[in-house]
From TrEMBL:
Residues 27-81 form the STAS domain. It comes from Halochromatium glycolicum. InterPro entries: STAS_dom, STAS_dom_sf. It comes from the Bacteria. The lineage of its organism: Bacteria, Pseudomonadati, Pseudomonadota, Gammaproteobacteria, Chromatiales. This is STAS domain-containing protein.
Amino acid sequence: MIDQTDYQTRNRSLNTMLRITPRADDDGVTVLTLEGRLTSDLIVILEQALAAAKLPSRQLALDLNDLSYVDQAGAAALRQLLASGVGIARSSDWLRLLLGQPPSIG
């Protein structure tokens, strides 16, 4: 069972917000949709959401299409997740390039 809790945080002093929404697709993949900004102070929220969504019988993937900003630490965290086997469900081409991934086709 996938925890449908949205992980959301706002840091008013930095004007940053990250929302993470988990969903289970029919292919045995749990997809976490990230919206907003991924900055160094919000990586812990991403880690908490990943830990809560991880199930032995399901793969994990990230939908990064609605991220509007990623700082250097956020990009490093995403690269580390990709290296550990977490997939990309959707992403903008600018973010794929930032992460060293090939641009999407189509």
